Amino acid sequence: MELYDGRPENTEGRLPREIRTYDFLDELGIRYQRTDHEPADNMAACNEVDAVLDVVICKNLFLCNRQKTRFYLLMMPGDKKFKTKELSAQIGSSRLSFAEQEDMLKYLDIEPGAVSIMGLMNDREGAVQLLIDEDVLAGEYLGCHPCVCTSSLKMRTKDVIEKFLPAVGHDYQVVHLTGEDSMDCIFCKIIAGHMPCLKVYEDEHTLVIMDIAGDVDGHMLAIPKKHVDNILDCDADSLSHLMMAVKKVSNHCIDNCRYDGINLLNANGKSAGQSVRHFHIHMIPRKMNDGIDAWPKFDGAKDEVSKIWSKLKL
Known about the structure:
Elements: E1 4-5, H1 16-28, E2 33-36, H2 43-53, E3 59-64, E4 71-76, H3 84-91, E5 97-98, H4 101-108, E6 128-133, H5 134-138, E7 141-144, E8 151-156, H6 157-168, E9 172-175, H7 186-191, E10 199-202, E11 206-210, E12 220-224, H8 236-256, E13 261-265, E14 281-286, H9 305-312
Parallel strand pairs: 4-6, 6-9
Antiparallel strand pairs: 1-2, 2-8, 3-4, 3-5, 7-8, 10-11, 11-12, 12-14, 13-14
């Protein structure tokens, strides 16, 4: 396999849907690299393409609800397992299944093995909801098929989000998929008693343990017993119970352990530095003049505060 810049010079023998993809990308001014190959209709074949493009080809799944009244195109990393239940809870659509081949052709003009975000250019009525795993958005580049499984493209994620999707009239919903069963999670194993820990506090809903990193004195982790990725998908009850436990342990540190204050630190999502996909809050008890600098260092805002405010306000 070789890597080329842009569309093929000779389009003889290529399907119209592939040529339309190149035409559309060129019209939008989106730069891309391309490689041609034997049909990549499974993940093993895609892994070989990954090596040529130096990017992970997205796993694209065309899904529907049980009634076949709602259709979804899910983009997720190719090496991540798909758990139906995990996605259903986030999009409020139970009993998801893979859509039929005829629906794939009807809405995306794509055949099995070639499902791609590029197919949204054919969904002129907006029948398909795009779902993108946060790990895909975190990458500078993404890989996809040009609506056929015998070629693959590499382009900037930013161009797909900011140029391609507006041009085809589609928005997207970010989803947070771990691809793991709860018992693959280290915190779930600790909660279930399958791994040891230094327990600080426990109630029916929450566990507070010592962080074994040993990076700073008193470093603790407050963890909800119910497995949720982070605050973005944490239900109100679990969040409330967690924060009440954090407050109780914090008061204990101040009232009984001769500390003067406490830092609460939390990361939500890969881009924010979350390393364990189970919601948790770091608790670091503090003493005056202890020399610990737990506040992150920033380089300064890139935009005016009022400009960012206009985007963030509810």
